[in-house]
Amino acid sequence: MTDKLTVVITDTSCFIILEKLQALHLLPQLFGNIITTPEIAAEYGNPLPDWVNIQTVTNTELQQQLAQQVDPGEASAIALAAEIDCDYLLTDDKDARKLAAKRGIAIKGSGGVLLLAKELGAIPLLKPYLEKMQQTNFRISSQLIEALLRDAGE
After folding, report:
1. Residue 9 DSSP class
2. Are 154 and 125 a contacting pair, CB within 8 Å?
3. Record's superkingdom (predicted)?
4. End-to-end CA distance of the chain
5. How far apart are CA 95 and CA 74, in angstroms?
6. What digits encode the pLDDT tens for the residues 43-97?
7. Which of 28, 6, 17, 25 is nearest to 89 (CA)?
8. Is residue 1 one of the residues assigned to a domain?
9. 36 pairs with which residues across the strands?
10. The domain spanning residue 62 has which CATH number?
């Protein structure tokens, strides 16, 4: 589907919502290298699939600075994205997205991941996933849902 060269670092939220949607399997279909941190693996609480690479942040000073503004998992993901060459940070947290954007890190949320899955033919329709997402405790605005469906041509 893709050239499999895309490197992403994912936060806990993406793992959790995709698992709830029974869509976690989409990540390795869409991205060539899925990386997370030990902090996120611990936050997630369940064993991660074998295709997830766990990498420790080396710039712990930056990680500690970021942890004053976001939770430890998000801080580790942003710090790792700042130190390795990645295409996207996958996170849904508003504060984490702002911090990452300030550092020039490209971001995709779970909705963006599902839209990419639709665009690349990994899923036939986006709407059923968004409807199921709304039935969880995941917060997604009706404006974002409308925008995603419009971008998906649905």
Report:
1. E
2. yes
3. Bacteria
4. 21
5. 9
6. 998 999 999 999 999 999 999 999 999 999 999 999 999 999 899 999 999 999 9
7. 6
8. no
9. 54
10. 3.40.50
The crossing angle, in degrees rounded to 10, of helices 110-119 and 142-152 is 20
* pLDDT, tens only, 18-34: 999 999 999 999 999 99
Written as six digits, the tokens of 22 are 């029974």
Helix 127-134 / helix 12-20 crossing angle, nearest 10 deg? 100
Give CA–CA dist 58/42, Å, rounded. Answer: 18
Please say whether the beta carbons of 8 and 119 come within 8 A: no
The model's pTM is: 0.90
- Domain containing 59 equals 7-152
Q: Give me the number of domains the chain comprises.
A: 1
Considering only CA atoms, give the Rg of the chain: 15
Tokens representing 95 are 């504060």
Identity of the residue numbered 99: L
